[in-house]
Design a protein that fits this description.
Layout lengths: L1 H22 L9 H5 L3 E8 L5 E2 L14 H13 L5 E9 L2 E8 L2 E4 L1
Antiparallel strand pairs: 1-2, 1-3, 3-4, 4-5
Length: about 110
């Protein structure tokens, strides 16, 4: 009987600790919910400056890359310019934890819009 009570108390304490770590610690710290739920990425509408045709980033990105970083977008723009001979401009949003930042692609660079 004592072992059952001790096991129940330890189980409740472990669950309480996990809930506290998950919801009441700083985002990004070990075990916090924000560590797993706040994924960054970007969404961009690009088009070629020469003819105005839209350029779909997903035709050039790896299929498993669903959330790219700003560096990945800059790398894509550089790849399109150097390897595909596409000079692209456009606008979009950079998804950050708890919000977003408007961005623009101008002269081969990613800038705040």
């Amino acid at each position: 009987m004592v072992n059952d009570v001790a096991a129940a108390v330890l189980a409740c304490a472990a669950v309480a600790w996990l809930v506290w770590r998950g919801f009441f610690t700083a985002p990004g710290s070990f075990g916090s919910w924000a560590m797993f739920s706040h994924i960054g990425g970007y969404r961009a509408r690009l088009h070629d400056i020469r003819d105005g045709h839209p350029v779909c980033p997903w035709e050039y990105e790896l299929r498993q890359d669903h959330f790219g970083s700003p560096d990945a977008l800059a790398s894509l723009v550089r790849y399109l310019d150097e390897e595909q001979d596409l000079r692209v401009v456009g606008d979009g949003v950079l998804l950050v934890p708890f919000g977003y930042i408007r961005i623009a692609v101008r002269n081969g660079r990613i800038v705040r819009a």
